[in-house]
Amino acid sequence: MDLLCKICSWPACLLARLPGIGPIVKMCFTSIGQKILMALTGLALVGFLVTHLAGNLLLFKGEEQFNTYAENLHSLGGALVVAEVGLFGAFAVHMCLAISTTAMSRRARKSSYAEQQSKRDDVILGGGGASRFMLITGVLIGAFLVLHVADMKFNLRDKLGITQFEHGDEESGNLYLHVRQVLRDPVTRVVYLVALLGLGIHLSHGISSAAQTLGLHHRRWNVLIRGGGMLLAWAIALGFLSIWVLGFLK
Fold first, then answer.
1. Is 88 helix (H, G, I), strand (E, B) or coil?
2. What separation in angstroms does the CA of 88 have from each of 81, 85, 149, 181?
3. Grouped pLDDT means (10 residues each) for the chain, 250 residues
4. What domains sit in the chain, N to C, each tagged with a CATH number?
5. Interhelix angle 222-246/31-56, nearest 10 degrees
6. Neighbour tally for 184: CB within 10 Å
7. pTM: predicted TM-score of the whole model, two decimal places
């Protein structure tokens, strides 16, 4: 874990040496700064998931509607590339911070059990409930994203001959048929199911934890914040699972 922390910290160490932004980078990567940055990147990714889900639900409206949506999305050109790079950056930062905060939490447990108990509510990856599975569910989501991008963006498994999607791809413009083919693939079905359940667990803790980190914490509203976060988390996960079910339909 410590080795992973060192590897993840290299970009921050390099940026910290740059004049002008060095102090800002150092502030962001203090203990408190990491928690805030992790919360912000996490909520940004949640916003993306909501938008992405809304577009993908057009699959249920049929081939024409979904392909029109996909065509309009790709017509954004450079703006779409910038958005994709930004999303990748947010995910990478979020992942590195997850490793860092996990390491900090483990060091705190080793140093003092009493100290861990007193700070448990303030640590993003604290113990109890869904929080115990934040790292493993994050890894599952990461594996899912690799497969998802490989299939949906680059059609990589098909090009390498690992599998064969007979109809539709990004080059032909018929993404509806391509998505349906991918969803019918046995490997996709297993990976997507496990990862989407992991996504629900991850978000059910992550959303409310991010809100608390950003100061949305009050004795009267905590139950509502946790309940709202869990509702949103499973609404997103079940929304994507409904698309997963589409792979079983003709």
1. helix
2. 11, 5, 11, 25
3. 63 67 73 89 96 96 94 91 93 88 70 46 42 85 92 86 65 80 92 95 93 85 90 97 89
4. 2-120+127-246 (1.20.1300)
5. 40
6. 15
7. 0.83
